[in-house]
Amino acid sequence: MEHIPEEDRAVEAASKSLLETDSAEKRVLGILWNVSSDTIGVQVQDMRKPATRRGILSATSSLFDPLGFVAPVLMAPKILLQQLCQLDLGWDDPIPQHLEQKWIEWTQALHHLQDFKIRRCYKPPGFKAITSCQAHYFADASETGYGAVAYLRMTDIEGKTHCSFLAGKARVTPLKTVTIPRLELTAATVAVRLDAQLKRELEVAVDSTTFWTDSSTVLRYIKNRTSRFHTYVANRVQVIQQHSDPGQWRFVDGKSNPADEASRGVSVEKFLHRSRWTSAPEFLWKKEEHWPVDLNLPVQLDQNDAEVKRPAIVSVTSTSEKNPTDRLLLQYSSWYRLKRAVAFFLRLRRLLKAKAERALSALQTRTAAHDGSRSSASSTSANEKKPNKKGTAARADQPTTPALLSVEEIDDAETAVISYVQSQSYKEEISRLRGMQNVKCSSPISRLDPVLDQNVLRVGGRLGRSTQAFESKHPAIMPAKSHVTDLDLLTPNHLLLLRAGPRLPPGAFSDSDNYTRRRWRQVQHLATEFWRRWSQEYLQTLQHRQKWTKEERNLQVGDVGYHRRQERS
Question: pTM surpassing 0.85?
């Protein structure tokens, strides 16, 4: 009480001292506060729990340690629980004997933890005005756990130095195997987040912050700004670089790192007598020239590092311009217009081919006549040139071409387009069918039992014996990802069947078909229900009624009526 000014003391405190109470220890937020010595301790409850996962978890959770005063001691039961999880034991199953012996030894030594005391005030008695206040964070990791611890280093005007424990964190490693460099980086992330939390809560102005780690790999990751890391490392490096500066990170050897106790855990006896957890490492009590020398690490990382993303090697092959046929197919967004365009091209090809055949035939005739008689060839050539000048004899033998396309020409164009698209997607299948071989089972269309009909792949199977139309029995096979396939027109058949294809067999369908596993019966029932509602609810609204469009009263007795009698002639 002598440290509290008299004007800030309560009225009751002037007449009654806190030391006059029954007990000098008070419970504050689950921890023990000794008022007489102004120290904080840990309350140890009864640990007589069954040696099961449930009992161990209950006993471990009963120790309330929000600031991590005894975090290294609590690592032993946490590691034990993780081992039990790996054995896939139930909550109330008995644990193996060797693990049970470890649990018994830990619980028997735990009562000594009541002797643990730590000063509540960061500034010791007799400490003069503070000239320097620094925050130091240590991070470390091992195969069993990782953690971080924070200290406040103060220097007064007389040059005296004092280090106080701020907070600590200790966690077990995940069940999934993680490399040591990744765990070291995770511990560094815990230290950075602990720094952000303490700076929000501390009422002391901190002049500088220093982070310590015994992993040179982590230091190189943090100081690197050019390499790209994998997701796990990249996310944690980003957090560290956002909340700290790379110049704040320094190297410390493992023997001088107090966070090593958080990563491996210590016994109660060692924690009370030979621990550096709450007292800070020895070099931190000395001047800065006695601190560990920082490593001069190269910033550039090795490209063979497992966490560094290797640059993707992309091989670009220069190809010529697209096939003219593909350009033609991509030019149209309508299936009908595409067929008309292809039909005109096929007509042009047919005309050019016929013209070339006529020219070849004429050339052969002139060659034969030249071999027989040169004079006869000269007179024949003169007679042929005269009609050409008028432009009538040369076109007399040419067949007249109609301006409009015929149905046969459009059908031929459709067959040509389908055959070309199939040849681009199913080269191997067409080649095997032409060679009188079956399609491989690995082919995506092998289950369709494909057949080749006039250079068009069609669906085979037993439908060939039915009496349906040929297009319904053997529809053409088209690739799913093709521009031509996307040009298929949207018809009522698509809306009713939810796909393009032949009509399903007719039949009687009911509401119970909605719950059957046969999809075609579900679709047919929906189609039947659609047409029923369409004819009953929508079709009638399209009919214009000529009579009784207005509401009128019924005929009553006494109304004058008009009767018209039709006379017979």
Answer: no
